[in-house]
Design a protein that fits this description.
Blueprint (H helix, E strand, L loop, with lengths): L2 H13 L2 H10 L14 H13 L3 E6 L7 H20 L4 E5 L10 H18 L3 E3 L7 H15 L4 E6 L5 H9 L5 E4 L14 H17 L4 E4 L3 H13 L7 E6 L4 H9 L4 E7 L4 H10 L3 H11 L1
Helix pairs in contact: 1-11, 4-5, 5-6, 7-8, 8-9
Bound molecules: flavin-adenine dinucleotide (FAD).
The site of flavin-adenine dinucleotide has 23 residues, from β4, β7 and α11.
Length: about 300
């Protein structure tokens, strides 16, 4: 395993430790979590989205939370997503929403989660909005795709889309199945700690698979969200779309809030659609630890923030 891969595994393991999570939950907002999270409250998040929109950036809003263990928590999350959609309408934000199925009760009962999703998608459809289902760790890949297929059949590609991860061996086959239906996909490398039985251990393979998935999905004529900060891959995709004459309204770049912001703006200046995944809410810790794991150098920035206060 490479040094980067090892660091990533170590950070994700440490993140699961109760003492570590307790420390961050207590001091997080003091030490600069807001670099990655727009705000804890929806009202402040709306202002952050307006600011991004003014710069020509599109947004997808993520009400933070995952792996909920009670129906009440799943209900609360669904209500917040509905409120988020209303805020998008009321403030005329150029934004859609992203959701995680485990936040909507998937681990309690898939039927509960499906019912929550139907409620969200019915509302989204009535408002002309779009909902993207994030992809979580490999134990839920199968059920996530299964629920997506059921929802897709009812609501279609204009209302619901999915994420696939290039680090999983299975993804090429999953993409083919979804492309045959015309699904709108976001392609990511994958952010979870996965065993070598299911995911490529070498980064070079993850990157190669990433490019292959994006190219194949665009060549199949499906809308593709190229979600990465990897400049080499972004340049490759730009050249590919020019060569294959893929229209610029058939794909978009996506990046995370607070990461590679100047690259986001450069792409907007060049006339590309760029969407910023903008998380908000109090349950930021798991999201935050994945951002540290991707780039352990981010820890220095956190430590500096802590001692500066
Ligand atoms: C819009 C969006 C949505 C996502 N949704 C999902 C999802 O549903 N499921 C899922 O598993 N994963 C998701 N991810 C995370 C993704 O899987 C990767 O973990 C993450 O994007 C880092 O990989 P990379 O493609 O940027 O490439 P990398 O090769 O990891 O990084 C390339 C370069 O990007 C910069 N960079 C990357 N990460 C960071 C960071 N944390 N801090 C600072 N700089 C960084 C660095 O300059 C790095 O050299 C999403 C990512 C994006 C952008």
């Amino acid at each position: 395993m490479s040094m980067t891969g090892l660091m990533r595994k170590l950070v994700l393991t440490a993140a699961g430790n109760k003492a570590v999570s307790g420390f961050f939950q207590k001091y997080g907002m003091r030490i600069g979590v807001q670099r990655f999270v727009a705000a804890e409250q929806l009202e402040l998040t709306v202002e952050a989205v307006k600011q991004l929109n003014r710069q020509g950036l599109l947004v997808t809003l993520d009400y933070l939370g995952e792996s909920v263990s009670s129906r009440e928590m799943a209900d609360e999350a669904a209500d917040m997503v509905l409120r988020t959609m209303d805020a998008i309408r009321d403030h005329r934000l150029n934004s859609n929403v992203s959701v995680k199925l485990t936040q909507l009760g998937l681990l309690i009962d898939p039927a509960l989660c499906l019912a929550q999703m139907k409620k969200l998608l019915a509302h989204a459809k009535s408002l002309g909005q779009f909902v993207r289902i994030d992809m979580e760790d490999s134990p839920v890949t199968d059920i996530t795709i299964k629920l997506f297929l059921e929802l897709f059949e009812q609501y279609g590609a204009d209302t619901v889309g999915l994420v696939l991860q290039s680090y999983l061996y299975r993804t090429a086959a999953d993409r083919k199945q979804l492309a045959a239906l015309g699904a709108n996909l976001r392609v990511v490398k994958g952010a979870y700690k996965e065993p070598k039985e299911v995911a490529f251990p070498a980064k070079a393979d993850v990157d190669r698979s990433y490019i292959e998935l994006c190219e194949a999905h665009m060549e199949d004529g499906c809308y593709t969200a190229v979600a990465t900060h990897d400049e080499r891959i972004i340049q490759h995709i730009i050249q590919f779309t020019e060569k294959k004459k893929i229209p610029r309204d058939r794909f978009e770049f996506q990046m995370l809030y607070g990461i590679s912001s100047s690259l986001q703006l450069r792409l907007v200046e060049q006339g590309y659609r760029v969407r910023v995944y903008t998380p908000y809410g109090e349950q930021w810790y798991p999201y935050f630890s994945r951002r540290i794991a991707e780039r352990p150098a981010n820890l220095w920035f956190v430590i500096r923030g802590f001692f500066r206060k």
